[in-house]
Amino acid sequence: MDYTKQIQEIASKLFAEEKIDIFIGYRQNAFDDNQVPILVTVPADVPNLIFTDKSVLNLTNYLKFEHTRNKRVGIVVKGCDSRALNMLLTESQVKRENLYVIGINCTGVLNEKGEKAQNCLECVMPDAVVYDEMIGTPSGKKEYSVNVDVKELAAKGLVERGEYFQEIFENCIRCNACRHSCPLCYCTKCCIDQESAVLYNGSNTPSSAFHALMTWSLHLAGRCVDCRNCEKACPSHLPLHLLHKQNEMVIYENFQQHLAGMEKDDRGAFYKYSMKDPDDFIM
Amino acid sequence: METEVKETKGQVVSAENPGIVAPADWQPVIMGILCNWCSYAGSDLTGTSRIQYPPNIRIIRVPCSSRVDPWFIIKSLQTSADGVLISGCHPGDCHYISGNYYARRRFLVTKKLLNFVGYHENRIQFSWVSAAEGPKFAKVVAKVTEDIKKLGPLHKYKKENLK
Amino acid sequence: MLTLGLEEKNTFLEAINKKSGANVLECYQCGKCASTCPVSDFMEFRPRVIMQMIKLGMKEEVCMTDSIWFCLTCSACSGRCPREIDIPAVMEAIRHLTIEENYHPKSKKVKDIRKFHEIFLDMIKRYGRNYELRMMAEFNIRTRNLFKDMHLAPKALLKGKIPLGHESTKSAKAIRKMYEMAEKLEKSK
Amino acid sequence: MARVGVFTCFCGANIADFVDVPRVVEETRKIREVRCSIEYKYMCSDPGQQMIRDAIVQQRLTSVVVAACSPRMHEKTFRKALSDAGMNPYLLEVANIREHSSWVHQKDKKAATDKAIDLIRMAVAKSIANEQLYEISVPVTKRALVIGGGIAGIQAALDIADARIPVTLVEKSPSIGGRMAQLDETFPTLDCSQCILTPKMVDVASHPYIELIPYSEVIELDGFVGNYKAKIRKKASYVNFANCTGCGACWQKCPVKVPNEYNMNIDKRKAIYTPFPQAVPNKPVIDAAHCTMLLKGKCGICAKVCEKGAIDFKMQDEIIEREIGAVVVATGYDLWDPKPYEEYGVGRYKDIITSLEFERMVSANGPTGGVPQRPSDGKVPKTVVFIKCIGSRDEAKGIEYCSKICCMYTAKHAILLHHKVHDSHAYIFYMDIRAAGKGYEEFVKKAQVDTAATYLRGRVSKIYKKGDKLMVRGEDAQIGQLVEVEADLVVLATAIIAPKDNPNLARLLGISYDKYGYLSEAHPKLRPVETAKAGIFLAGCTQAPKDIPDTVAQASACAAKVCGLFSGDTMKKDPMVSKVNTEFCSGCQNCVTVCPYGAIVTEEIPMGHGSKEMRVVSKVNEGVCQGCGSCVAICRSMAINLSGFTDPQIINEIVAI
Amino acid sequence: MKKLTYFPGCSAHGTSEEFDHTLKLVMKTLDVEMEEIPDWNCCGATSAHVMTENLAYALPLRNLVLAEKFTGNIMGIACASCYSRMKTTKVHMDENPELAKKINSTIIQEGNYTGRVEVKSMLQYCYEDIGLETIKSKVTKSLAGLKVACYYGCLLTRPKGITKFDSPEYPVSMDQIMEALGAEAVEFDFKTECCGASFSISDTEIVESLTGKILEVAKESGAHLIVVACPLCQSNLDMRQPDIEKHQGKSFRLPVMYLTQLMALAFGYPESDMRLKKHIVPVEEALSNIGKIQEPPPKVTKTKKAVSAESEVE
Fold this sequence. Notes:
The structure holds five protein chains of five kinds.
Chain C: H1 11-20, H2 32-36, H3 47-55, H4 59-64, H5 67-70, H6 76-80, H7 87-100, H8 108-127, H9 132-142, H10 152-158, H11 172-188
Helix pairs in contact in C: 1-7, 8-9, 8-11
Chain D: E1 4-9, H1 21-29, E2 34-40, H2 46-59, E3 63-68, H3 71-84, E4 92-96, H4 98-102, H5 109-128, E5 136-139, E6 144-147, H6 151-162, E7 167-170, E8 185-186, E9 191-192, H7 193-206, E10 210-213, E11 216-224, E12 227-234, H8 249-253, E13 256-259, E14 268-270, E15 272-273, E16 285-286, H9 292-296, H10 301-305, E17 318-324, E18 326-329, E19 334-335, E20 352-354, H11 355-362, E21 383-390, H12 406-420, E22 425-430, H13 440-449, E23 454-457, E24 460-466, E25 469-476, E26 481-487, E27 489-494, E28 496-497, H14 502-509, E29 536-538, H15 548-565, E30 570-573, E31 578-580, H16 590-594, E32 600-606, E33 614-620, H17 630-634, E34 640-642, H18 647-655
Parallel strand pairs in D: 1-2, 1-3, 3-4, 6-7, 6-18, 7-10, 18-29, 20-27, 21-22, 21-27, 22-23
Antiparallel strand pairs in D: 5-30, 8-9, 11-12, 12-17, 13-14, 15-16, 19-28, 24-25, 25-26, 31-34, 32-33
Chain E: E1 2-7, H1 17-29, E2 32-36, H2 45-51, H3 54-67, E3 74-77, H4 80-95, H5 97-104, E4 118-121, H6 122-130, H7 132-138, E5 147-150, H8 160-163, H9 173-180, E6 184-185, H10 204-220, E7 225-228, H11 231-239, H12 241-248, E8 256-258, H13 259-266, H14 284-287, H15 304-308, E9 312-313
Parallel strand pairs in E: 1-2, 1-3, 3-4, 5-6, 5-7, 7-8
């Protein structure tokens, strides 16, 4: 998967036609093999743009910052990114008319070890669902499968599972990098920073990490698109996807196979209901 | 998969932390969050009918089960509660038309998530109790209390630095 | 007099519902099935009555009545049922139950009908196909009613309506195997 | 620093016998914020309340906790005590130590006492976060809009107008009167429908407080309770009502014949017509779909014969706007089309008619002059079969519910048939006779005994033709035999269904409707007249099938509700409503989605102080909000909060023990 | 040239040989190549499902599996009873793959069931896949003058959930085909009343009563003959007619012909191809009405509202 050339062409054309002010894409990192985001504002920077199977990050995250607000933006989105973009559009965080979306029909990106990333192996929608222009051939919706880690962990005993997570919450340093890297965490002021939450929460303790991560994952339940920006940003390398994938599984299995961001105007599983929702867990 | 609740003589072992034991007469604290129009009214009826139930529950009144933020559940478990009971109107009977339908979805996901990270399922329980179901409310409280007594004290992620 | 309230659970109703996939409890006794059924006039208990009897748990009476054997499975009743109950499936479920639990209605008519079905199935087992003349003859012999329809036979034969010869599938063996397997499945339930 | 007063009630022996009140007082006094802890035998009594009032003043309390019975019992009483002492009443919290402790833990005094102490602790903690709240007052436009001019709309309009509140009555067809105007006589008294209805219709037309807008439809409704703005489209009638005298020359001369809806299409009317002679207003309209002048530009006879020159072929639809405070919806019902009953040969046999067609036939002003006739050959039928539950109680072909009135009107039809054709005989196929109502069972008895109608219990399975007769086959379950009736005429008691337009109207008004299309009431038992949207009320069959007495009762109930709403210049409302903190609102509009009342709207505010850039945030309409808190729980940035049940209040409660 | 996988059923090779024969003629004219499943077996008809469950599925399933070996996507079935069994089995198997697997295991040597082949009765095939226009275009000898009562029986359109074809109460497909051939289809109320087929041998009393009623109403409707598309209906109505007349003391003399016989006739095949001699009730008299156009009776309007909905100008 190497669409560098196409993307550079499209970006130059967009700048030439004055359709955009900013182009958000990837560029090669000077220090290592990884790619980092680049906000191209002048046509001269277009040759820096690159797109390969190392273009891992979800760029829609950059739509929530001031740089791009009320500007005309060109952006590259893979399947999962486009679902996040769908969520942002639905939740009125970006205006569709301000965007020029280049949808990638993704074949999966690589992890640090150079293997296909886990979320790509389990990806349900590799094709971009929102786009103005499409690159690559669509491969269609895939079968949903429960995350292997979630499955493995769920098979363990309660105590063992508890100990596993205890370690996670102990290792969390409450740096909030996960929140900052998440495209869907755009709140003006996060709830865990609010007065009433801070008051009873303390700072860098397992219990505050527990509270923060639980609340965060529940706020993303039914909205998370499994792009794993959070996990890549986490300095403690915590397996944050476990929480999201667990919620996704529960929602998929119980609420009409709901998956986040697949359709426009779908606000997520918590913002609608069905008479047929499971009721047997309630006395 | 749930671990078996251990039967021990004279002591209660915490289901989540087998190292922690409590004396046999240990009494759990249960946080009850009830909707104003059905379950709170139902619990009042339990009172007026003088139906007895275990005294472990502490009741908070909210207008509707849809007012219950999962945060309340997490917070309750992080402070003094050993278990949570949330109760609302039966599906279709919501005073606010559809509140309990939204709530039901959140409850299921919250319950499963907490179970996933190491809480026993029975610590977080839900019920639909109508304003006429005084006896049912007593039964529900009795069952939840009994369930949680078996699970022993909860020590996970309790506030280290407050109270 | 029918005394009710003795049994705690209506196991008959449950069995019929499970077997048929219908829910007999949905019946509200409008009687449309009863007047729809083409063989209503020949029945001791019409479909409507059978439904009520199931609800009351009258297993013996239902399993021993001729009526369930008169059902032609023409589906007219279910097509008109306001609550869309699959009445033919219920009838079928009762019949299968009577066979499984060895109920034998005493009337000659039912015996004839059951004999007919047995001969028919036997015929397929042997030849893979149905051979009508033989079928009729065998039926008349086995029900000891030698001269029934005999006046029709010469006319039919003469007109070439019923051919004398018969054919069978080449793989009668496969059919016999199917019978054995199906029987096994039936028992394994 | 908060200063809380705790007042513990003995409730006679109700609390004191099972809770150690002195210990409660002692323990609660130790709570940091508690300034005083007082016990009394009956806190709700006047001396009890006086103790609270005194303490508020003397101790300069910032909030009050009363530990007594359920807040559902005496919250209002104690709130009043607070405001009498000059304190904001919403600074009160009630700890329910009777229903939740003393009455339910009577065997364990220690545990009950401990629990009572905890409950008070929680209430104290909550009260610290309580805010001063003020009753919301919403201004009211004192004009009601009634949609639908059937008996429900007429009754509601008259009752409201009699209270000197202006009413705008909007009717879709050229005349008010609705379904009731089509009826001959009404059960169970057999008084003539026209005789009791037409005076009311005339009253509507002449009432100084009623503005009647016929031949028009509501197309838009904006705003909220007390402050709605309605747009009404007045369809072009092509007749200038101001000039028209209603002489009738136009329709007498009109050459175009059109099926007559009023007579269930049994006969014909003209293309310019008044629906029926007693119509109100009694002015003709031109049916644009059939008028040859409007379609092809030829004819114009009506204009030629009109001496007043009232005909105006160039007339256009007109949009009327009205500011109103409340809406009564009374759009009535439709009849179910029995086509799916193929086994009866509906549509193939002319002599199978619906009950309303029969009603028109036996009507004195009907197309057959009050004597039923077979549509096939015009003969007077002698044997008439009535079949009930056509479409009703039939999930397969029609709808699940019971239409409620068919049992009664079929009995009426049997009686009317006997009155009109003395040597006739009525056979009625029924499943159940539902005659719950004043004088109803007696009425059915009249049909069974006086007119000797034969009731057969069973659904008809088939109708087929034999000569010029219809053979009706069914089972009479009572004798357990199949029966066949040789009928001259078959009358189908077709089901009542919701008007086809109801879902559209509901969307337009912002109210909900059920799976059948009936508009939904706010509560099936306790609020059967209100909708979930404040200020919109339901009357008659638009909510569910009903008979005339029930419809009229509901219409009058609507009027009472409207009058109650308009009783002051402003409406008072509980302040327990949601509030948006625009600083934190990120404008995701999820709250707009989950609000069951449509109380949340969006507004644009500057990005920052003095900024020209705008951002979208949510805004709660306090007049509409009912205070459920759905929006609060889903707001991720905690930008919306429910007064009285804010996050800090509830979290305080949780962490208090 | 369309391809059709053909399942004749036991009767087509027995009592209703004329149906089979004329069907083949008609399909030839209509440009349809019929491929008969060579090794088909009996569908078990009513007996199998009356008595047992698994066999009732296994017998038809074998035929369905065999049909999948042909290129045609449609399996045309002559006999209504076979059609009903085959279609029911197909619908149930498609709805419940687990059951399909279980039943398939009894005939596994024949192959795996995939559900590729559609099951249709010959009436449905003519109506849906060939179409009235094509049929009309092939008519060389109009049947004008002939009044027919179309009798569908219970199984061609019922149960609605299984057949998904035409109306279960008042079907019109055969009537329309008849009208395409030039004949007049009379209004007939007993189109789908049961003739008692499966009791035709075991309980003749019931059959005679049911069939008698059908014949009576058909006679009343003014038809010259009854048209059927099911061998069991044909043999019940035709073969038992003299007995019924004798026992009920009535005279019907209503010939019962197959749909395909009349189609073949209209397509220009000689009467000798119709195998008319096989009929117990002679058909010649009824067929002599062809061409005798009577004074058309005042047109009966189908629905009352259809007329009045139109406005008229004086």
